[in-house]
Amino acid sequence: MSITLAKTENDTDAASVPLARPWPRYWARSLDLAVWSTIAGIVVAFAFPDFAAQPAFEGKGGTALFGLVMTPIALLFEAVVLAAFGNTPGKALAGIKVRVSNDRQIPFAVALRRNLQLYVYGLAFGIPIFVVIAALVNYRKVDSGSLVSWDSANDTRVINVSSNLGRTFIVAVIALAMHFGAVALTSLEDSGAGYSTAESTEYDTSFDAPSEDQASEQY
Asked: What ranges in the chain are assigned the alpha helix state H?
């Protein structure tokens, strides 16, 4: 199974190549977001530790909020990689790629604008209920062979290079593993923090509590 990030001499006109199907696109997007969000989180945590340590980002809900805040930064990283290499890890694994309709490698400005529109119309700003609605609407468009709004507006296509069921399955497994791994890690961190707090409280209570002799002396 070969993976190609950059454009090759055998590439053909993107407008004449079959468009990628919905599920390869969905799982490739999920994996890319997981990868770029993780990288964005690490960069922000090191560059702006005070921001990353905000109480609002603590606990399961806080972790979800932090991921939501990292999404635009993740899409910025993706635009850089897409412009530099012509593809992303998730799409390359899935056997699909994004091209301008005349098969030019997508420029950074176009990639960034496309991702911003994807953030609005495809990811619905990450708002849970609207994400589901947007996913259903765009699934139907892609399934019918139509272009989604962020592709039609930027003259881009997500084309099928070598997509198949096996590739889609592998990408889905990796994306789900990253998601549930992050959830499990957050749960472990919360459990550890809760245990440390309880242990500290127990120690403070036992230290501060007067003995019976001390209590009798006071009276």
From this structure: 22-47, 49-52, 59-85, 89-94, 108-117, 128-143, 149-152, 165-208, 212-218
DSSP state at residue 161: S
By residue count, the chain amounts to 219
In the chain, the amino acid numbered 5 is: L
Q: Identify residue 156 by its one-letter amino acid code.
A: T
Per-residue model confidence as pLDDT tens for the chain (219 residues)? 544 444 444 445 556 789 999 999 999 999 999 999 999 999 999 999 998 888 888 877 777 788 889 999 999 999 999 999 999 999 999 999 999 987 788 999 999 999 999 999 999 999 989 999 999 999 999 999 999 999 999 999 999 999 999 999 999 999 999 989 887 887 776 665 554 444 554 555 554 555 555 545 544
C-alpha separations of 8 from 76, 105, 135 in Å: 25, 10, 32
d(CA 17, CA 100): 12
Residue ranges per structural domain of the chain: 14-177
Question: Which token pair is 134?
Answer: 């947007």
Rounded to 5 degrees, φ, ψ at 27 are: -70, -35
- CA dist., res. 139 & res. 133, Å (int): 10
CB-based contacts of 145, cutoff 8 Å, min separation 6: 19
Quick count: other Cβ atoms within 10 Å of Cβ 36? 24
